[in-house]
Amino acid sequence: QRVKYLIDLTKPFVAAIATIGTTKGPTIYLVLVYYNQLFDILEEAIKRLKNKRIPWKKDIY
């Protein structure tokens, strides 16, 4: 369950890296768009973990 959670959390990062890596000369604009989206994902994950009672989820937070 822990591994699945971490895999699900990192999927958007893998997709962003793959997209940026396959474009011909990524622009700053593209990088900033992905940065903002990924940061929002992290903030949402932190909010969800904040009130968890399961020890391993509390450790992640």
UniProtKB/TrEMBL annotation:
This is Uncharacterized protein. It comes from Sphaerulina musiva (strain SO2202) (Poplar stem canker fungus).
